[in-house]
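Researcher: Next entry in the queue.
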Amino acid sequence: MSKSSLQQASDVVESANQRESAAAVLLKELDERQESVLRELDDLNHNIEDLIESWQVQNKQEPEQELLPDDTSVKNTA
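Model: Structure for this entry, 78 residues:
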């Protein structure tokens, strides 16, 4: 093999190694971003579940309050 052929082969290998290294960095960044998004979605899901639970508790309490006499009706009967 000539010297230029060896240099070309070395350049091709070096270029492939650089692309592989860049791809590995991008993959690591993507994995980190995915983990971050999944954590944010999990937090959002918990917030939504808490909100739904508070609405359900509030809706259960409202009918009970309607059954209790209010202050004006108690004053009128006294």
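Model: The chain has a mean pLDDT of 86.
Researcher: Noted, moving on.
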